[in-house]
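Q: How would the structure tokens look for this protein?
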Amino acid sequence: MSRSLGVQMKNNEVKKLHEKEIKTLFPEEHLFLSVNASVMIMHELTREINHIEKVVLAKAKLRKEFHGLLSLPGIGAILALTIMLEVGNINRFKEVGNYSSYCRCVKSIRTSNGKSKGGGNRKNGNKYLSWAYVEAANIAKRYYPIVKHYYQKKMSQKNNIVAIKAISHKLARAS
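A: Here is the predicted structure in token form.
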């Protein structure tokens, strides 16, 4: 869209385009075929993803924690399921900080008398939980104004990675 027409269109708007609208926007046959094929692929992939999600959710044994996770910003059914299955029994963590550390949401640094004494076990923990919370943070910053405001505040202080990890840490603590 932007290359051919100089117009930017959001992903959801592109998905809503019908063949007649695409033909109107792209009267040249080669451009019409290309854009129409891309839109059809997007529709098919969305349908397949929805089908896979239904099958997975039907097979999974959902616990009460699953529904609590769904209430957090940025966490949908698949991320909630991933978190629920990866965590197991949440009671094995004595404090919320232990859980955040297990999710790789905090730095692993050793200090003594204000001096750094090594990096610690930065690869300890669960990489899948780390991934899930970073994904949730990226989604939350897009669709939740309060999270977006917090993200922009952190971005002004540090950088993108630090801001996303700060949101993922907040989500891990909340869960």
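The beta strands are 111-112, 115-116.

The CA atoms of residues 56 and 164 lie 28 Å apart.

Upvote if useful.
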